[in-house]
Amino acid sequence: MSGTERLPAGYPEARATFRDRARSVGARLEAVVHPEAGPDGDELAVDVAVVGRPDAPARLAVVAGTHGVEGYAGSMCLARLLAEEARDLGDDLAAVLVHALNPYGFAWCRRVDEGNVDLNRNCIDFAAGLPANPGYDELAEALVPRRWDDPQVRAAADEALAGYAARHGFPALQAAVSAGQYRHPTGVFYGGTAPVWSQRVLADLTRRHLQGAERVAVLDLHTGLGPWGQAELIASRPDEAERARLAAFFGAYTVPADGTSVSADVSGDILEALRRWLPGTETTLVAVEWGTVDIVSVSNALRADAWLHAYGELRSPAGARIKDQLRAAFAPPEGDWAAAVTERFATVVAQAKEGLLR
Ligand SMILES: [Zn+2]
After folding, report:
1. What global pTM score does this model have?
2. d(Cα 265, Cα 253) in Å, to the nearest integer?
3. How many whole angstroms from 243 Cα to the centroid of ligand 1?
4. How far does residue 224's CA lie from ligand 1's centre (Å)?
């Protein structure tokens, strides 16, 4: 399908395209409206399309925009799916498509939500207490210094991060920074103190659209880690039976806890929550993570954005530059990147469909 291998211009266009395409295939469409508005006053919502028989024994859920700005690519993938693969699901398979699970982050060009919370670190068991991350505590001031706009402060902060990597190794730095932290609300990879709006919406959607299925596969679409345009399928703490299904569906996949992934082993991702919410269902859950630019550029874009929202002026030339930098790190404008993403996405969807119907 030509014309779909292009990132949307922004959240409003992405949302309109998703809803139009969902209607064109006769999907059941619903919107869960977010309490806040977008930068131009536009409505924000999680839009959900269910294609096929809602009581089908097998369900393929595809989630775009768990990390706000990563929804540019996720939305493009959902548009492609609605134009192509969702047209012939048969009687035994339904597709549950979730557009902009974190609509605030998508519209405002942030990876995190309205409260600076990383939804993929928020799905922990808060009753069990907040996980500690002493590495992050040590680096918090260097990661998001109050004077990000002061070159001398920046240089000292970058030196502190390089020193940590030199002492402990780069994987330890990546884990300290990105595994999740629960003590620095204006920092990066902050997991919050209670389930956030998007998590509560996802729990409700799971109850209404996925519970009761015999088999559920989930593709949670992400960008920003790994080599340019290449995808890694990342599982979250699968048991032996799920490992066997992952291998049967997709062939290669990685598990951060095994040390095989581009991602650190994180706490509180949505896949773990989905598995908890689907007891008795055969689950096959992966994040599909597409690489963009190098990890230091991605990390610096996130640090700058956290600083902007904590200490800077959003509507200023510096604010606009930081937003451009963030968007380029998670939704690169190059057409070859978008084409690589949609091509691999089509393959992964075909594998998931075949695996669910086997
Ligand atoms: Zn992500």
Report:
1. 0.97
2. 14
3. 22
4. 7
pLDDT of the chain, 358 residues: tens digit per residue = 444 579 999 999 999 999 999 999 999 999 999 999 999 999 999 999 999 999 999 999 999 999 999 999 999 999 999 999 888 899 999 999 999 999 999 999 999 999 999 999 999 999 999 999 999 999 999 999 999 999 999 999 999 999 999 999 999 999 999 999 999 999 999 999 999 999 999 999 999 999 999 999 999 999 999 999 999 999 999 999 999 999 999 999 999 999 999 999 999 999 999 999 999 999 999 999 999 999 999 999 999 999 999 999 999 999 999 999 999 999 999 999 999 999 999 999 999 999 999 8
**For residue 77, what are the domain limits?**
11-125+191-296+327-357
Centre of ligand 1 from the C-alpha of residue 67, in Å: 5
171: number of Cβ within 10 Å: 11
| Distance of CA 42 from the midpoint of ligand 1 (Å) | 24
Task: Give every CB contact of residue 150 below 8 A, 6+ residues apart in sequence.
Answer: none
| CA angle centred on 200, ends 197 and 205, rounded to 5° | 125
Number of domains within the chain:
1
**What is the Å distance from ligand 1's center to 50 Cα?**
23
Beta strands in the chain (DSSP E): 28-37, 43-51, 58-64, 93-99, 215-228, 231-234, 282-291
CA 124 to centroid of ligand 1, rounded, Å: 17
Q: Cβ–Cβ contacts within 10 Å for residue 75, how many?
A: 26
310 falls within a domain: no
Taking the centre of ligand 1 as the mean of its atom positions, its distance from the CA of residue 228, in whole angstroms, is 15
Q: Read off the tokens for 66.
A: 């768990």
Q: Which CATH number covers residue 237?
A: 3.40.630.10
